[in-house]
């Protein structure tokens, strides 16, 4: 018998489809919800049931949790899967599910709360022996104290306003005599922008990598990790290519990272799928805790591919109280997987490109997977994230996975809107990506001027000839239309002639 | 049929002749010689939503989106926006601006969104590639920059405004 009768999926797009697929394979009914803008979205077509939840802005639909719970009750759903983003880490929503007697497929409210606050999360990690970035314990009150800490942890350091964000209230200090001015600047920015002058100091990792570990826990105190993913290819701090395993993590460090992550998960009695993110220093091979995401992530398929574990199925089973279906020793990394996030955006300016998809043909072939909600005629709405598809390829070796990804991208047809497929193709051929030494600064350093590379692929006459033929056809059909419509003056003239 | 086209800042004269079995397309980039291409209709075939185009031994799957003067051509996951003016439009343009196609005198919103910040001030001269404003759409902040040197005539929006696709955000005039 299925663990749940019916699951409501409080999300949209590819992740809603991914969860619907797991439900169907497990014999569980699926309930989609949709906003005004998403009536024609593929997740609505694929689910067993679908309910309208409000206007297009997510605040009034996908984030309106009272409405979602109301729909779940009406549909008779006994569980809700939040996917990623939207309500996935919202404690009020998780609590409201509990109160309504509906199972929230995700971690406990206490888990989300413990990891939601960065300072308390860091303290918890330290307690469980997970390496954290060396620095001050909480706020620093004076320049003298700041200098003392910097001398202890070594330069460069970063001074950050506690309440800061978006690059404000942040200074990297590379020389001791710069500390005083940076300290004062951060305090005053903290006060001016966030009404809080508290600052703290951390060791600054030059050119780091972003490595994360997938963890899983059940309600029977079993905790495991499913190895790492490297997500250093980012633009505007958002990931676009992920791979597993990371080409930079030595086996011994990999095991240590995994063990540390399991310790962290145990420390908080973590339940369900979670990810512990680390800053990784590629020179020293040291890793430091950054934050924990208490949800399923966009890049979960690469872990599924290399470990053979269906993470969504596992989430559903664990939420229903079943023990994990595997033990740590059962989990092996087999081969290499890469994921490319296909976004509706201009690959040169990174500006979103919503609109109607005209042609859409997904690549096919061995050892690959496409998680997508794109189809011909679909109007990509402006209200949500620009990611429309995820392409995942697998290879016995990293090189094979990359080559397969290149092949699959070359087959991918998406027209009518601009996409970043060509950016992916350029990245995959870049020597720094190929040799695996790329860091989070990779895009910034190498793709400020992506344009020439991108334009080399097809010669201008191909575009000009096609545009000229179509412009010619448009003009010709307009002429024909004009010939067929007799003018009012002509008709009037004819009438006058008939009268005389 | 005669056209003028602009692709990535380069101007072209284009001549298209349709035969029974082929297209004759002649292209002349400004300052260069005419180049003639004979394209068999068998090599430029419509297949469902797109066109299969065999050109100089290479196979392209092409889609052309647009009408009037603005066309976007997609192929091999690459795309180009092409401005193309036919004889009729060239005549209109020449009546309007005294010949050729000049820059736009308005900054329009390409999609619905929210104005986050405005950098430009009325009466100010903004140099090419300098930011004019930031608009939020699809959860991303998009900086809109001046495509050429312009003088700000009128700012039609204010911070926090929600705008529809095609809305005029800023009106320009030629800097004196």
TrEMBL record, chain A:
An annotated Gene Ontology molecular function: biotin carboxylase activity
Pfam families documented for this protein: Biotin_carb_C, Biotin_carb_N, CPSase_L_D2
Ranges for domain ATP-grasp: 122-320
Superkingdom to which the source organism belongs: Bacteria
UniProtKB keywords: ATP-binding, Biotin, Ligase, Magnesium, Nucleotide-binding
The protein's Enzyme Commission number: 6.3.4.14
Alphabetical list of SUPFAM superfamilies matching this protein: Glutathione synthetase ATP-binding domain-like, PreATP-grasp domain, Rudiment single hybrid motif
Keyword Ligase: yes
Domain Biotin carboxylation: 3-448
NCBIfam families, A to Z: accC, PRK08591.1
PANTHER family in the record: CARBOXYLASE:PYRUVATE/ACETYL-COA/PROPIONYL-COA CARBOXYLASE, METHYLCROTONOYL-COA CARBOXYLASE SUBUNIT ALPHA, MITOCHONDRIAL-RELATED
Protein name (Swiss-Prot/TrEMBL): Acetyl-CoA carboxylase biotin carboxylase subunit
Organism listed in the record: Bdellovibrio svalbardensis
Highest classification ranks of the organism: Bacteria, Pseudomonadati, Bdellovibrionota, Bdellovibrionia, Bdellovibrionales
TrEMBL record, chain B:
Residue ranges constituting the Lipoyl-binding domain according to the UniProt record: 98-173
InterPro entries tied to this protein: Biotin_Carboxyl_Carrier/Decarb (IPR050709), Biotin_lipoyl (IPR000089), Single_hybrid_motif (IPR011053)
PANTHER family per the UniProt record, alphabetical: OXALOACETATE DECARBOXYLASE ALPHA CHAIN (PTHR45266)
Keywords linked to the UniProt accession: Biotin
Protein name (database record): Acetyl-CoA carboxylase biotin carboxyl carrier protein subunit
Organism domain of life: Bacteria
